[in-house]
Amino acid sequence: MRAEATVDLAALRANVEALDSRVGRAAVMAVVKADAYGHGLLPCAREALLAGAAWLGTATPEEALALRAAGIGPDRARVLCWLWTPGGPWDEVLRADVDISVSGRWALTELLAAVERTGVPARIHLKADTGLGRNGCQPHDWPELVAAARRAEAAGQLRIAGIWSHFAAADEPGHPSIQAQLTAFREALAHAEAQGAEPEVRHIANSPATLLLPETHYDLVRTGVAMYGLSPVPEEGSPADFGLRPVMTLEARLASVKQVPGGHGVSYGHHYVTPGETSLALVPLGYADGIPRHASGCGPVQVAGKWRTVAGRVAMDQFVVDLGGDRAAVGDEAVLFGPGDRGEPTAEDWARACGTISYEIVTRIGVRVPRRYVHGRAGAVPGGQEVTP
Ligand SMILES: *Cc1c(COP(=O)(O)O)cnc(C)c1O
């Protein structure tokens, strides 16, 4: 193997169980958008359901349809998708019995036309913009959207299965937007319920809110990053502090090891020059594989037990580390990130080095990197074994 991402499904399962026990009577929606944050849609969705998640959440309708096409039926999981554009696959999603987020009148109009065409009534979640300013219905448009949805519900065309919203800054405890959004959410809910809506689920909590704000759990929490064992609030606590374990480990085999003299430029632009005679190792992963080019000169890599730093620029397919004269052999393992318990860097270390968030580090890992699914790390965890997804 050149490089691979190991996905520990036992860790994923334990993370979902930990989140589920944290939220009491609220249900857990495993957010598996973006190929399960780079971890693999189907294996992660299946494992999350085994661990007790009752819902799966995706951004696009295509992601939701992929779950149904793989045999994850409505008897096993309710699925919600929330990022619609005009002309979306309304008919297919209705026939697949997938819940649909509705943020505005245009979506309701297209959806009702599809209900007419297919004869299948919809299950919708009305989304309120309580302050994020992204998707969702503004308060001044809410009464009209609710009224239209209620008319369609009375006509048997749809069911208002959910009412929901999304936080802007749940990862910043004490941020004034949190209470403001909760107030706006309560008002949106009260209005819809006064108009006769009887949602099965009211939901607003993402991972940070699930971990830090119990009053936001309502009937359902939508957890993404925490399920993959990463802390959404690294300033507040590490994954272990929240009972979570990182799921993905990214490793590669050194493709070259060689001695070079001092003063030798390394990689494009020669932004690194060897300070003296040294050994250089080549890691066969680059920005085409999702290694941020911003990791040039700063990304951490464990080689032969020691932390090294990306030397010079990250290229499309490869980058170099200076081993400082230490010996290594072609084929030796380089660990970019993992849970951290073998002394390796974590996705959070990469995020800090690159000025981003751990979400982006794992989600970016490209299709050229094969995912290998294990249940516990063989050798490290009793009963650890390889599994076929
Ligand atoms: C991605 C997403 C989530 C999950 O967010 P995390 O912080 O990863 O838990 C929840 N809700 C919506 C609407 C999202 O887009």
In short:
By secondary structure, the chain is of the alpha/beta class. The protein has eleven helices and 20 strands.
Short descriptors:
29% helix, TIM Barrel, 2 domains, Lyase, Ornithine Decarboxylase, Chain A, domain 1, alpha/beta, binds pyridoxal-5'-phosphate
Walk me through the structure:
The mean pLDDT is 96. The protein is built from eleven helices and 20 strands. By secondary structure, it is an alpha/beta fold. It has two domains: 9-228, Alanine racemase (TIM Barrel); 248-356, Lyase, Ornithine Decarboxylase, Chain A, domain 1 (Beta Barrel), CATH 2.40.37. The chain starts with a strand and ends with a strand. Helix 10 (347-354) crosses helix 11 (358-364). The longest helix has 19 residues, at 176-194. A hairpin with a 7-residue loop joins strand 16 and strand 17 (319-322). The strands form three sheets. The chain has a ten-stranded mixed beta sheet with strand order 11-14-17-16-15-18-10-1-19-20. An eight-stranded parallel barrel has the order 2-3-4-5-6-7-8-9, surrounded by six helices. The protein has a two-stranded antiparallel ribbon with strand order 12-13. The site of pyridoxal-5'-phosphate has 12 residues, from strand 9.
